[in-house]
Amino acid sequence: MALQCGIVGLPNVGKSTLFNALSSAKAEAANFPFCTIEPNVGVVSVPDKRLQILEGLVNPQRVVPTIIEFVDIAGLVKGASKGEGLGNKFLANIREVDAIIHVIRCFEDSNIVHVAGGVDPIFDKEVIDTELQLKDLESVEKKIQRIEKIAKSGDAKAKRELEILIQFKDGLTAGLNARAIEVDKEELEAVRDLHLLTIKPVLYVANVDEGSILTGNKFVDQLREKVKEENADVIVLCAAIESQIAEFDDADEKAMFLSEYGLEESGLNKLISGAYSLLNLITYFTAGVQEVRAWTIRKGWKAPQAAGVIHTDFERGFIKAEVIKLGDYQQFKTEAGCRENGKISIEGKEYTVQDGDIMHFRFNV
């Protein structure tokens, strides 16, 4: 399941530095707008201590973590919705991702130019929001023009769809993101084909100076207050420090470096885990001597759907799933030990997979 998070932000907020720290796919970081012209894609492992526990218990030949793709998208300027700067390319690239990681500058540095002339996280947020809203408004208005003709003919379905579209138009015109417009799941079908930019889930990253990584600062406070209305999370990190942390291969050296800053884990780990949660994803595991592996699925998926992530035949010929909880595996040490102590449950097609389940599928095709 290749899911992508698009890293966006105004020029010179630190998003390419952050991307470089996230991924070995190095984007050019430079002190001028548009240094990242083509989107760079980095494949990032999702940190999960449960994999290490299973590795210690099973001693497999290899361990395969689950992944998320991050896309570093070209910087945005005011007027992008009308094609200013690299606006058209930016909007096309962001339309393809599943979620948005919005990096906002929350540090002062006279050596790094800010496009607005000064640090203002609310300005940064609203510039991007406005450009995306304007593009979404354009998409909604075009569909309204098409649906109006059908609705005037008396088509009841078209009339209802038109009402929903007008609701989105009014919300976007008022400066709301589509995700903040209150409609039920069925009503979302009216705009699903439009692939609205502001309907995508968003996670805000406050890029701060070294002295603010533990306590934040006034800019972080302003940002948190502003995004309350969206019920969105804010992750505080220092991209410059994260780029240094990413250089460490040795886990003990990395831990020592983190402790020097009073950190228990890197901001990147928080970001990756936050993005995973933002996409409504969970992990289940398969464990054997050849491989211990983490698999990504959507929260709420049934056992056959989860099996299909491994191979479509597993879903098509699904018979049952054998499920072990990690705590039981830790207690009884082996799969055989869990079986002997009645800690393997047999689940059918209606079983909803839980985060952390260790699963073995039986199938026949």
What would you say this structure looks like, in words?
With 365 residues, this protein is an alpha/beta fold. 40% of the residues lie in helices and 19% in strands. It is built from 14 helices and 12 strands. The strands form 3 sheets. Strands 2-4-1-5-6-7 form a 6-stranded mixed sheet, with helices on both faces. Strand 8 and strand 9 form a beta hairpin. Helix 1 runs parallel beside helix 8 and helix 4 packs antiparallel against helix 5. The longest helix is centred in the middle third of the chain and has 32 residues. The radius of gyration is 23 Å and the shape is flat. About 4% of the residues have low confidence.
Short summary:
The chain has 365 residues and is an alpha/beta fold. The chain has helices at 15-22, 49-58, 87-95, 121-152, 156-173, 189-192, 218-227, 239-245, 251-260, 267-278, 303-310, 312-316, 326-332, 335-340, and strands at 4-8, 40-45, 62-64, 67-72, 99-105, 202-207, 234-237, 281-287, 291-298, 318-324, 345-347, 358-363. Helix 1 runs parallel beside helix 8 and helix 4 (121-152) runs antiparallel to helix 5.
Write the SSE topology.
Elements: E1 4-8, H1 15-22, E2 40-45, H2 49-58, E3 62-64, E4 67-72, H3 87-95, E5 99-105, H4 121-152, H5 156-173, H6 189-192, E6 202-207, H7 218-227, E7 234-237, H8 239-245, H9 251-260, H10 267-278, E8 281-287, E9 291-298, H11 303-310, H12 312-316, E10 318-324, H13 326-332, H14 335-340, E11 345-347, E12 358-363
Parallel strand pairs: 1-4, 1-5, 3-9, 5-6, 6-7
Antiparallel strand pairs: 2-4, 8-9, 10-11, 10-12
Helix pairs in contact: 1-8, 4-5
Domain OBG-type G: 3-257
Cofactor: Mg(2+)
Function: ATPase that binds to both the 70S ribosome and the 50S ribosomal subunit in a nucleotide-independent manner.
